Amino acid sequence: MSTIPSHLRYSAEHEWVDESSPVRIGLSAIAVDALGDVVYLDLPEAGSTVTAGEVCGEVESTKSVSELFAPVSGTVAEVNTAVVDEPGLVNSDPYGDGWLFTVEVTGEGELLTAEQYAQAQEEQA
Amino acid sequence: MSVSTTSRHTALHDEHAALGASFTDFGGWDMPLKYGSELAEHRAVRGAAGLFDLSHMGEIRVTGPDTASFLNTALVGNLAAIAVGRAKYSLICTPEGGIIDDLISYRLSEDEYLVVPNAGNAPTVLAALQERAAGFDVTVADESADTSLVAVQGPSAQAVLQELVPAEQRQLVAELKYYSAAPATVAGIDVLLARTGYTGEDGFELYVPNDRAVPLWKALLESGQGHGLVPCGLACRDSLRLEAGMPLYGQELTRDLTPYEAGLGPIVSFKKEEDFVGRTALEARKAAGAERKLVGLRGEGRRAARGHYPISVDGEVVGEVTSGALSPTLGYPIAMAYVDLEHAEPGTEVQVDLRGKPVPFEVVALPFYRRGQ
């Protein structure tokens, strides 16, 4: 079973958000397992504005293309260039080196606790 | 396509589950998609060896004094011309020349062939062969449900097998030519050992009765460990065959296409005397020439063109992608596509619509990857 770290919060679209400022955002291990090996990431640019619940990028795995939804609203502060160069980091370390970007938050979407997220996944399974 | 709850299981299904495979429905079968990382599996086949369960493929045995002339009537190739022990890639077409399936036929003896259709097409091919057998002294027997097929593919495939055959068969394994098959004993199990594959690497396919499939699989996995062999799923099989420029039925080959669009014209034999199914239509298509053609596309960056993405030149749609991926071996996006003939020359610049963004690709010759390069 995929790990769901308890210190993070999660969107229904499987992004995780941490507690730092600006917040760091990534993809949950559940999402990563479902995607397979990630080969391309289209992330929002630093300085651009993202809106919670709206599409802000693309995640492409060997077999599929998925949209990336912003879990929070705000301005993108930093993009993880390492993961853009080496998208496999999303698979090998989704909660660490595989983070995607950071956002100066102006508003949050609906975010779940680890427990709520885990429960939501079980209900879907 | 059936849903997974009704998908058929191969004799090796429990082995895959124990190895942690994730499964996918393919041709009505619940098949391993991957065991871990599909990219790692892909690289194992290119660099060492991979072990595949291909038991979803069909096996149809044709026997009887008329077998060679029957297959020459039912299929587009000249099956009668191959020697005993050799295999041939061929097509079965409709009377209109449309491709029903692509298949491999092994000549096991003068009057005995093993015909291997794709999983999803196996019932259709069986029915067509049975129908076309009228008037021939042949028996068409479907052995698909009783036969397992495992493949060992990769540069180390031969070394893996050599450890498992008796000493007196090692020369046979070493000398078995590409597209040949012979009976062999692997880990004490009698198999039909074929030097065929769908990965672009050297490799073997082993046909074995279902009740011997598990011990064969386990022996190959164990013997292969020292050679870097890993179990491989259909995800990497697809990326491997794409790099090797091999068509997949349902994507590059369909009933709406003849061998001439698919670049398979040379395997249609008009020299043979039999009035094979599709002959008249295919002669006409050959004479008229195909209006579109299967080509390779090469892109830049990392974004893959995928099946059904439109292809355009100067804003006008000129074709459609059939398969595409970021090539794990080459590192750039590759795709197969049908394009109008005037845009099919290698070097032609086209645009692929990647979800609303036109991205440049170049028409290139197939295959994308050749082993030993």
How does this model look, in words?
The complex is a heterodimer of chains A (125) and B (373). Chain A is α+β, with helices and mostly antiparallel strands and 125 residues long. Chain A has one domain: OB fold (Dihydrolipoamide Acetyltransferase, E2P) (Beta Barrel). Chain A has 4 helices and 10 strands, in the order E-E-E-H-E-E-E-E-E-H-H-E-E-H. In chain A, the strands form 2 sheets. In chain A, strands 5-8-9-3-2-1-10 form a 7-stranded antiparallel sheet. In chain A, strands 4-6-7 form a 3-stranded antiparallel sheet. In chain A, strand 2 and strand 3 form a beta hairpin. Chain A starts with 8 loop residues before the first strand and ends with a helix. With 373 residues, chain B is of the alpha+beta class. Among the domains of chain B are: 152 residues, 2-Layer Sandwich (Gyrase A, domain 2), CATH 3.30.1360.120; 83 residues, Aminomethyltransferase beta-barrel domains (Elongation Factor Tu (Ef-tu), domain 3), CATH 2.40.30. In chain B, the strands form 4 sheets. In chain B, strands 10-11-12-9-3-13 form a 6-stranded mixed sheet, with helices on both faces. A 6-stranded antiparallel barrel of chain B has the order 14-17-16-15-18-19. In chain B, strand 11 and strand 12 form a beta hairpin. Chain B is globular, with a radius of gyration of 21 Å. The two termini of chain B are 38 Å apart. The model of chain B has no long low-confidence stretch (mean pLDDT 96). Classes of the chains: A alpha+beta (125), B alpha+beta (373). Chains A and B meet through strand 4 of A and helix 8 of B.
